[in-house]
Amino acid sequence: MKLAQIEKRPPRVPRPPPKASGGAPAGSADKVHRAPELVEFYQSLMKREAKKDTSSLISSSSNVSDARSNMIGEIENKSSFLLAVKADVEAQGDFVMSLAAEVRAASFTNIEDLVAFVNWLDEELSFLVDERAVLKHFDWPEGKVDALREAAFEYQDLMKLEKQVSSFVDDPKLPCEAALKKMYSLLEKVEQSVYALLRTRDMAISRCKEFGIPVDWLLDSGVVGKIKLSSVQLARKYMKRVASELDALSGPEKEPNREFILLQGVRFAFRVHQFAGGFDAESMKAFEELRGRVSGQTEDNKQEP
């Protein structure tokens, strides 16, 4: 069996890493759109492949020639891949070590600068035929790279969530039940994400400090605080929708419906209040309007014979 020759690619010269932004605020708009789900899927596949037994098990078949042909094809493909990896290891050593030096020297005071650096690093590493297979042959700062990527992905996910909540618009064309359900689902998503972060925040902060990664975005005064404030705005929209529906439900026969939807509004408001640690002035005003309707409803019931 004769394997195809793998032509070595010329050594790559890395582009310079992005310059620091000069202290841009953590909440500034991110113009780089990455797909962390793609990276996570790739990494999960790589981990799964690494655990597989490398031996090929070929089941008995009446067509022995087909099985033999498939086995030879797999060996050729694997050998070609290994040759391509070897070629990169031999030709791209200076390139890899240059990137490693940039990673070791990298230090950030702004999380946005870190995100830009990770984007740059990932783009440079994509030149390699297989990042994991090539880098294991070098003294690569894997721990720091993993920490940088985790921080960048977590920050971008949180910012994406904050934008989703803050930009939410209650569609008046939607029926009330569907609209309230939509807002409730969004709140659940917010709570799950924030509580998951809070459970591991101390450990994440310690890891970030170890590798010179900014931690201000992890604090309540950072992205978490922005998300909580956005949830308060969501509560205001929820209460306004409830108030609008209450106004539309008139007559004694609608009283059970009014009571039910009013209870929904108060429960949602309380849940957000506990999650966010309070309300702003506009949300308090919306809450007072709901509470006023409760008082008005009680007075009406007292006047009934």
UniProtKB/TrEMBL annotation:
Residues 1-10 have a biased composition (Basic and acidic residues). InterPro entries: CHUP1/IPGA1-like. One of its GO terms (cellular component) is chloroplast outer membrane. Residues 1-34 are annotated as: Disordered. Residues 20-29 have a biased composition (Low complexity). Keywords: Coiled coil. One of its GO terms (biological process) is chloroplast relocation. The keyword Transmembrane does not apply. PANTHER family: PROTEIN CHUP1, CHLOROPLASTIC. This is Protein CHUP1 chloroplastic. It comes from Prunus yedoensis var. nudiflora.
